[in-house]
Automatic annotation (TrEMBL):
Residues 8-193 form the Macro domain. This is Macro domain-containing protein. InterPro entries: Macro_dom, Macro_dom-like. It holds the Pfam family Macro.
């Protein structure tokens, strides 16, 4: 499907000959495709032990096993299991999706290069997905909550990075909770894809 043909009416956009982007409103903790080669992205903090917003919701839905698995991820520095822009993978446990890819987006006002850090977060999630034979991945709007990333700029970075690095991923989904973020992501996808 070509983006121009759908005009975003069904939220589907072609990324490449083998990859499609789908933008949906909803709860990322309920998203899945096949329960074996799918992953949701958790906008984590560097400790990876749960937090607020989507991170907290994902940890609650996955059950205590997720926190235990995250705790076993080696620290690269004291208290840091996943530095900003990097990604780590765990099983999904009680989530419908088979895996969780944890990434840490930038705090917009304090990161020296928020655009580069956000780009790395998306790119590294896709890299980890490919390394683990994940064919379907669902992202939230990384850093758009308490980390304060402006929605339009975040959408531009997210969509352009996914367009560039999504090869070998059959479907890339954005599962967005808020109407305003969904509207901005859809508008930007029509412009960029």
């Amino acid at each position: 499907m070509m983006a121009s043909a759908t005009a975003g009416e069904d939220g589907h956009f072609k990324l490449s000959e083998t990859s499609v982007l789908k933008i949906n409103k909803g709860d990322i903790t309920k998203w899945f495709i096949d329960g074996s080669s799918d992953a949701i992205v958790n906008p984590a903090n560097p400790r990876m032990l749960g937090g607020g917003g989507a991170d907290g919701a994902i940890h609650r839905a996955a059950g205590p096993e997720l926190k235990e698995a995250c705790y076993k991820v080696p620290e690269v520095q004291p208290g840091i299991r996943c530095p900003t822009g990097e990604a780590r993978i765990t099983p999904g446990f009680k989530l419908p999706a088979s895996h969780v890819i944890h990434t840490v987006g930038p705090i917009y006002d304090s990161d020296k290069d928020p655009k580069g850090s956000l780009r790395n977060a998306y790119k590294n999630c896709l890299t980890v997905a490919k390394e683990n034979n994940i064919k379907y991945i669902a992202f939230p709007s990384i850093s758009c909550g308490v980390y304060g990333y402006p929605y339009e700029e975040a959408a531009t970075v997210a969509l352009s990075t996914i367009k560039e690095f999504a090869n070998d991923i059959k479907e890339v989904h954005f599962v967005l909770f808020a109407d305003d973020i969904y509207d901005i992501w859809t508008k930007k996808a029509k412009e960029l894809l």
